[in-house]
Amino acid sequence: MSVAPAVVSEKQRSNPVSHSRRGLVWLLPPLVVVAVFFGYPLVLVAGQSLTTDTGFGLGVWAEVLGSAEFRDAAGQTVLLALGATAGCVLLGTFLALVIAFVPFPGARTLSRLVDTVLAFPSFLIALAFTFLYGSAGVFGAGGFLYSPWGVLLAEITFYTPFVMRPALAAFGQVPGVHLDVAASLGARPWRVLGRVVLPAALPSLASGACLTLLLALNEFGIVLFLGAKGVTTLPMLVYGKGIVTFDFPAASVVALVDVAISLLLYGSYRVLAGRGRGAAVDAA
Amino acid sequence: MTPAVEFRGVSVHFGRTRALESLDLTVARGETLALLGPSGSGKSTALKALAGFVRPNAGRVFLDGEDVTDLPPHRRGLGVVVQSYALFPHMRVDANVAFGLKARRVPRAEVASRVAEVLDLVGMGAYARRFPRELSGGQQQRVALARALAIRPGVLLLDEPLSALDAALREDMIAELLRLRAELPDTTLVYVTHDQGEALALADRIAVMRDARLVEAGSCEQLYRRPASEFTASFLGAANLIPVDLVSEGTPATVRLGERVLTAEPTGALGPGPVALGVRPHRVGVGAPGADTLPALVRAVQWRGTGYRLDLELAGGATIRAEVSETFAVGAAVGVSIPDGCPLVGVGT
After folding, report:
1. Is ipTM > 0.90 here?
2. Is A198's Cβ below 8 Å from some Cβ in B?
3. Last residue of a domain, one of B225, B254, B280
4. Within this chain, do residues B258 and B284 fall inside the same structural domain, yes or no?
5. Which residues on chain A are in Cβ contact (under 8 Å) with B85?
6. Chain-wide mean pLDDT for chain B?
7. CA atoms within 13 A on the CB side of A150
8. pTM
């Protein structure tokens, strides 16, 4: 029985054409899935975006991209996403540092709690914020919750664990002896943090930040649930054009722009995540 | 003269674990002291207490007469080299070496010259722009040494620095450390190791530790030739501990081994309990059975290149080890001779 696989393997080696055909067979199912569930809908959306009153053309693209509404939504989306990412990186890094390096009872429990928060839906945070900071909430603060700042705070709260998790993993891989040796060389704690700990964790922090930026850019639940006045993001614009006003070509244009930005960021995330793994292997 | 390093009743406990118990020890300026002991003996904990990496539960630590027990590591001015090298992986070799100098705000021009100076000292001048991952283990160890030396520490702490190297490289590094030792006569070295060969080669004095306590401290030759305890005799030089009957005390004492009466040198307080002769394997004579020898059987033979190592079972059942120049067949009956003048230690000391 044990000879058979070796024989097959030998045959494969002796016939590379047959081997590559087998490879294509295995490649086919995921390609079909991607084509049916992602490629085809995307083609439909792209086709829809090129549909004009007189047939096909770039008229809708020109109209949407030239509109103040789109520019405002794009600007607001990018600003909110960048703000949320910056806030998440600062807060997430700080909290991860405390959990990783400041010994206190319950640190491990807190670390596991972070994983739990990752499983929550985003609207739950918005709902909790409504109870806390809404007009009738415990800490009702006027219109704060229904402003861009409210959305920003909710997004930071929801997405911070997405930075904390890779940061905790990265900090966990920094050997304690590195900190000891750095201190013995005369480095004060802040210098050890800035020159030894954070550079070692930088690829992981960057990949966490990139993931957060990607998710915040496409955040829909929080913005919709809070219903913040004057806050229109690209996903909200897609929703408004497509579901409220039934302007599908315009909704498709906005959606495609959103997809393009997301893919660009996802590519960056993959590159940084790869470097993060490389750094972790080096550290080990 | 004020010692460079002094432990005064230092104890370190981790929860219920006693990692170091009442350590009293001094190291003179320019001296190399080896803390020698098996795993869990407390030697690394003593080093950590000295470096400030752990806070003693009791006792005080002094550097040049100053009580540094409460000082954080960055204010102690010690150089530390550890077994894993602990080079910062994201920094090149020169940046690693410059780390301590920059932390101490040494002027930039001086940083460059001192980095070049210490890298040349350890023979790594040509590797300044490499990353640690691009270096071999021995090269990384040299860089770690250069980094510790760059800050010109009065006391250099080396925690099992050669343990991660292969045997040949370890021999080279011992020679390298001896050369550095000669070039830095004023620097005090505290060298933690479990390898008696490293300790004997590098140290002026050895402090033997066991079970979180200091067993004894003394010059290498003193501990090797006249160990005051059973533990030191067996750990340092792998002496055979052969139980004997004490016939008469004194210096020398007289002991009985089987039918033979030998003279022996008591090296410490013998106490009322049983005593044993500490006999180094190379001092055990093996030949044909005779009237003046102890009957024994050869149980195992290992060829060691320069000679043979024999495991011998004495008539009473005790097993001893001998290192001889000629081989014997396994199972052969031989005669063992023990010379006069071997150290005599109390069993259990």
Report:
1. no
2. no
3. B225
4. yes
5. none
6. 90
7. 30
8. 0.76
